[in-house]
Design a protein that fits this description.
Layout lengths: L2 H14 L33 E13 L4 H9 L6 H10 L4 E16 L4 E16 L1 H9 L8 E3 L3 E19 L5 E20 L2 E5 L6 E11 L7 E14 L2 E29 L8 E2 L2 E2 L6 H7 L5 E8 L3 E10 L3 E10 L5 E13 L2 E11 L3 E11 L3 E8 L1 H5 L7 E10 L1
Helix pairs in contact: 1-4
Length: about 425
């Protein structure tokens, strides 16, 4: 049993513990969610001066872990049998992605003669990572099959960050015909949980008879513990929107900022380390996930690696988003975009969606996306308004989970409740 097994096991446990709850899935500006279901541009409408919205949500996705695996592990907390593990390994590649996010918040908007003010409070629990096929094998099957050989631990990169945020922002129309808009937000963050692990080079050698293990590579890891001080930081968001022919084009950068946290447990070592001790069996037993008292600290200390208590400055995982929309008559609106999050395991995500309006107050929005933490994903959005003042909207990321769970990855759901006047 090694650092990778404990660390990756904890990571998968934390990520897979994300419930499929209410939230805004794949919408960079959740308060604009209902806007995208209206042919008329909400951001330039003169029908209202105030807008408030509450939203919350969760999603989980992977480049290779199936929805069947998530179901057994997340909902049933059941024993993961060898056949199901082998199915995941058959889908795994040299580098594999896994990520999840729970988020929610309150948002308010006020339009004045000089511009548009906005403010909000948000919560975000974010995990992401990429890891090798051998690392996944070690977590779920142990190291017996590597007797007399080495398991590759590279790449291994994990980020976990839980933040509570408050922000204030301003948006203003520009240009002769006021066809463009710029915006900026400033906010402060409090981080209650921090985890970061990185091994650019790493391997685990198991002696033929299991007498010892040798861990070699560059080990960089730090995480918060019970004695750690809550991290504090600041961030900014930048936003631009304009009209080009019949298209609405928008560009956005979010969470450009940092977190500084104190009293973190930190490891930073390079070399080869030997561990001679008792073997640890599979951490998954009949009752589900178990660690039987084993921690990252005890494993590393058995390898002769000692921790330090340090203060750390952490860059927040920024989001870069370019998107656009176009109306096709009164019944259809198309959306397209590309999104990138500066986090381990995330690849540029391309998406397209088409909204169909049954009436002025009811619309559905099917969509396809490729990338992110997953591969090809299917979504379905629904929006309903009441008296053109109250709105409810939801985005469903369940179709693959319901139709073909054994060959698809990813699930989630979102909802927003809003009012304008």
């Amino acid at each position: 049993m090694i650092l990778t097994r404990i660390t990756l096991g904890l990571f998968i446990f934390c990520v897979a513990s994300v419930p499929v709850v209410l939230g805004q899935y794949e919408v960079d500006r959740p308060e604009m969610f209902l806007l995208e279901r209206k042919n008329a541009s909400f951001s330039t409408s003169s029908e209202y001066k105030h807008f408030v919205s509450s939203w919350a949500g969760g999603d989980i996705n992977s480049s290779f872990i199936t929805n069947t695996f998530f179901t057994e592990f997340l909902y049933k907390r059941s024993f993961i049998d060898a056949d199901l593990i082998d199915d995941q390994l058959d889908r795994a590649g040299p580098s594999n992605r896994l990520g999840s996010c729970i988020q929610g918040g309150l948002y308010g908007f006020l339009q004045t003669a000089k511009g548009k003010w906005e403010a909000g409070i948000t919560y975000k629990d974010f995990y992401s990572g990429n890891f090798s096929k051998d690392a996944f094998t070690l977590v779920f099957k142990g190291n017996a099959s590597y007797a007399g050989s080495s398991a590759s631990l590279e790449p291994l990169s994990i980020l976990g960050l839980t933040t509570q945020n408050i922000f204030i922002g301003y948006r203003k129309s520009i240009g002769k015909a006021a066809t463009a808009e710029i915006g900026c937000r400033f906010g402060v963050s409090r981080a209650s949980n921090i985890l970061k692990v990185k091994m650019e080079q790493g391997a685990l050698f198991t002696e033929q008879n299991g007498a010892y293990l040798e861990l070699s590579g560059d080990i960089q890891a730090f995480y918060s513990n019970a004695s750690s001080k809550a991290g504090l930081g600041a961030f900014t968001d930048l936003y631009f929107q304009t009209k080009w022919k019949k298209w609405n084009i928008s560009a956005e950068i979010r969470d450009i900022g940092f977190i500084r946290s104190g009293q973190l447990t930190s490891y930073n070592e390079s070399g080869t380390f030997r561990y001679e001790g008792i073997a640890v069996d599979n951490i998954f037993g009949e009752e589900g996930f178990k660690l039987t008292g084993i921690t990252i600290d005890t494993i590393l200390q058995n390898f002769g690696i000692q921790p330090k208590i340090e203060n750390k400055l952490i860059l927040m995982p920024s989001t870069f988003h370019l998107g656009g929309s176009k109306d096709f008559g009164k019944k259809w609106t198309s959306f397209f975009g590309v999104k990138m999050i500066a986090a381990p395991g995330y690849m540029p995500k391309l998406y397209t969606r088409w909204a169909y309006y049954f009436s002025k107050s009811l619309a559905i929005q099917p969509g396809l996306s490729f990338g992110g933490f997953g591969n090809l994903d299917v979504e379905l959005g629904v929006a309903k308004s009441f008296a053109d003042k109250y709105f409810i909207s939801t985005q469903l990321f369940w179709i693959e989970y319901l139709v073909a769970p054994s060959i698809t990855s990813g699930q989630g759901m979102s909802v927003a409740l809003s009012m304008r006047w």
